[in-house]
Amino acid sequence: MVAAVNVLGVGVSAVNAASATAEIRRWLDERESHYVCVSGVHGVMECQRDPSLKSIHNRAGLVLPDGMPLAWWVRGAGHREADRVCGPEFMPHLLRNLKGSRHFFYGASPETLDKLIAWVQRDCPDAVIAGFHSPPFRRPTPEEEDAVVAEINASQADIVWVGLSTPKQERWMAANINRLTAGALIGVGAAFDMHAGNVKRAPKFLRRTGFEWTYRLVLEPKRLWRRYLANNPAFVVLAAAQITRIANFPAHR
User: Fold this and answer.
1) Which of 2-11, 95-104, 196-205 is the least confident region?
2) Which of 138, 141, 196, 221 is the most buried if burial means most Cβ atoms within 10 Å?
3) Distance set, CA 75 to CA 7, 12, 85, 92 (Å)
4) Cβ–Cβ under 8 Å, residues 88 and 201
C-alpha cells in the first residue's frame, strides 16, 4: 500500500513519478483496476465544498500531488522522497516507461485528440494507441455511456487517460471503474490541450516555485480568476487550521 497524507481530509499519496509508475505497473501485472486523481489546491478545495467528491478522491488508487503546495505538505509529513507529480509531466513519463502497454484517450474535442495522437506518435513512439473518443460537451445519455464503455473494453486498453475538467473527470472515473477492464484510469485535466499545443505551460523555473498558477491566470483570466483568487487564500487558512490543530479534517471513503 502506498502511504497517504491527510490534506484537508483528502488522502494525498506520498509518491514521486517513479514510485507512482511502479504502483500502476503493479496494478497491471496483478490485474487490479483503480483510478488516479491528479489533484492540486483546486481539487482539494473542491472536495471541501462537495463531500461526494472527497469520497471519490479517497477511494482512488492514487491521489497524485499536482502542485508544489501539496508536495511540500507530503514531504513535511516525513515522506522526503515525495515530489510533485502533475498531469502534463506524468503523462509522457508513463507513456515512455510502461513499454508495451495499451492506451486509450477519452476527452477533448476531435481536433484536439487528432493533435494529441500526433504528439504521442512523435514523442512517445513506443506507446501503443488502443483508441480515442471525444465525448459530447453535454451530458452523455446512458446509451452513449454504454457505447463508450464497450468501445474502451473492446480496445483492450491497459490505461485510460481522461482529459476532462475537475470534478467531471473524477466523477466519470468513479462511475466507470467497475465497468471497464483497464487497469488504470488517470484523470489529467488540461494535459490533453497542453500536449496538443492548445495551451502553453509555464516556464520550467516557475513550475517548482508553487506559482505556476499565476502564469495560467495571466493566460486565461476570465476562466481561472475565481478558481485561484478564491481557492488559494482559503487553502492557506484551512491548512493553517489543520497544521495548528485548530480544526480537524477527517478523511472519509
Assistant:
1) 196-205
2) 196
3) 12, 11, 13, 24
4) yes
Task: List the domains of the chain with CATH numbers.
Answer: 29-243 (3.40.50)
Task: Please choose, from the candidates 69, 56, 55, 89, the residue with its C-alpha nearest in 3D space to the C-alpha of residue 190.
Answer: 89
Cα–Cα dist 114/95, whole Å: 17
All cell numbers assigned to 228: 485561484
| Of the listed ranges 109-113, 131-135, 150-154, 195-199, the one predicted with least confidence | 195-199
The answer to whether the CB of 169 falls within 8 A of the CB of 163 is yes
Q: Please, what's the b/e burial string for 55-78 (b: 16 or more CB within 10 A of its CB; e: otherwise)?
A: ebbbbbbbbbbbbbbbbebbbebe
The answer to whether the CB of 104 falls within 8 A of the CB of 180 is: no
pLDDT digits (tens, 9 = 90+) for 15-35: 999 999 999 999 999 999 999
Please tell me the total number of residues recorded for the chain in this structure: 253
Task: Quote the CA–CA distance of 34 and 59 in Å, as a whole number.
Answer: 9
Measure the CA–CA gap between 172 and 170, rounded to whole angstroms: 5
Which residue in the block uniquely carries the three cell numbers 514531504?
75
Question: What would the pLDDT profile of 65-109 be if each residue is shown by its tens digit?
Answer: 998 999 999 999 999 999 999 999 999 999 999 988 999 999 999
Rounded CA separation 12/4 (Å): 5
The chain-wide mean pLDDT, for the chain, equals 92
Look at residues 66, 39, 65 and name the one whose alpha carbon lies nearest to residue 53. 39
d(CA 217, CA 223): 8
